Amino acid sequence: MSRTHITNLYGVGGIATVAQRRTVEVAKQLGFNEISILYDNSLRDPEEFDKKVAGILAGLEVGDTVIFQSPIWITSKVERDFIDKVRQYQGKVAIFIHDIPPMMFEGNKELMPLFIELYNKADLLIVPSENMKDYLISKGVTVEKFVIQNLWDIPVDFMSNFEPKYLPRISFAGSDEKFGITENINSSDIELEIYDHKPEDKLIPDNIHYHGYVDEVKLLSELHEGGFGLVWTEDMYWREYMKYNASYKVSTYLRAGIPLIVHRDISCRKLIEDNHWGIVVDSLEEAVERVKAMSEDEYRKYVESVSKVSGLLGDNYFTKKVLVDTLYEL
């Protein structure tokens, strides 16, 4: 009987490896085997690649299914060659697309055809959103089977034995410098909580508070107090990417139990509107006005809706569904 394997990247920091590791933890509960890939630039060398990949795939047998988590942040050629090696075992291959570097970084956009070539080697693609599926097809993907991810799970427990309350507060977990938040919210009526390091050379208004880096449990606990979670960027290239990707920030705020503030172009807009998870706006000015005008009763209705998905995110519901749907579709 054929078995199912899933790759797991080691040696890279940040959300990239957290997402892969958490996916593998769920996969193991479902009986999958882990294929460990160490981030290793020597894989660019053909001789080293052949030698090391032979070791990485030593546990594979003919007919086995492999779910490859992409990217592994070396080169798309290494990923394409890796899939070619897996293909020699004559089993099914799915690629779980976490991020697409040419869409993330403007300097890499000319590499997109190489990633399309990679994705076309799969029998099935796991993609963040319907928008991403449509976009990849428009760029030349010919794979016929897709599974839509929609949301990242946040399987983290925190103190949540009370209901978040309405506060004229907007929280942003991310780089203020990169995403341009504080310079575009000018209202002193709103408390702005920024989970980023405080700039040393800037005069900070009294309503803006920097918290620096905090661990996930502390972040969720503080967010859960109330207010709104902001998913935003003023960087137009990144905003374009947000039409397609699955944002970890979206899941973090939902797991914390607070309603979202998002730009209307975000990939999961329909989910947010259909499920009453937050407010969809065109500008940060509009967001501030919506927050200031909201009643406590209206806020409570958002919190009730968000609480339903918060539990699912904590229980790895979306990851389990993606993996089970993938096996079914293959």
DSSP strand content: 15-25%
What is the total domain count? Answer: 2
Helix fraction by DSSP (H/I, runs of at least 4): 40-55%
Task: Write the H/E string, N to C.
Answer: EHEHEHEHHEHEEHEEHEHHEHEHHH
pLDDT average, as an integer? 95
The CATH homologous superfamily of the largest domain is called Glycogen Phosphorylase B
User: For the report, how would you describe the main beta sheet?
Assistant: 6 strands, parallel
Q: What's the total helix number?
A: 14
**In the CATH hierarchy, what is the class of the largest domain?**
Alpha Beta
Uncertain ranges: none
Give the CATH topology of the largest domain: Rossmann fold
Oligomer: single chain
CATH A-level architecture of the largest domain: 3-Layer(aba) Sandwich
Provide the structure class: alpha/beta
Q: Would you report the number of β strands? A: 12
Spatial gap, N to C terminus: 15 Å
Instruction: State the shape.
Output: elongated
Enzyme class: transferase
InterPro entries: Gtf3 (IPR043676), Gtf3_C (IPR058592), Gtf3_N (IPR058591)
Family: Belongs to the Gtf3 glucosyltransferase family.
Binding site for UDP: 178, 247-252
